[in-house]
Amino acid sequence: MNEAKKMGFRDYEIKKMDIDFGCIRIRIEGATEYTIICKDYIGMEYIGQWDECVIEEIEVCYEDEIINRSLDVISKYNNTDILGGGSKKFDSQWICLKVKLIDSVVINIACADVDIIEM
């Protein structure tokens, strides 16, 4: 069974997404402003953006297809015996941040850890 931790954030808006070598940062605003940081990401999926970036819910899953697909691509094209980016281990525990928008678009990010920082 897919264990998940629902975090809420209904009606918050995505204001900015930054992607760099080590992490993905998502700035959201609502009653308060937060930055969600996905550390040591291995894959991302964001398909169908059309209109608004209003959040329906955010959750963290410990099993998800994006994790499996990311690991499949990594193992096909890389030497998994070495550390990815100097710190990622192939057999680490991976999680998926799922950001569901009100128009049913889902942003999936497979990563090693997620931090939420109140701004």
Written overview of the protein:
The protein has one helix spanning about 65-75, and strands at about 5-10, 15-20, 25-30, 35-40, 45, 55-60, 95-100, 105-110, 115-119. By secondary structure, the chain is mainly β. It is about 10% helix and about 45% strand. The chain starts with a strand and ends with a strand.
Summarize the structure.
By secondary structure, the chain is mainly beta. Helix content is 11%, strand content 47%.
Order of helices and strands: EEEEEEHEEE
* Total count of domains: 1
Poorly predicted spans: none
This entry's quaternary arrangement is: single chain
Per the principal axes of the C-alpha atoms, what is the gross shape?
A: globular
**What characterizes the major β-sheet?**
5 strands, antiparallel
Any idea what the radius of gyration is? 14 Å
Number of helices: 1
Structural class estimated from helices and strands: mainly beta
- How far apart the termini lie comes to 34 Å
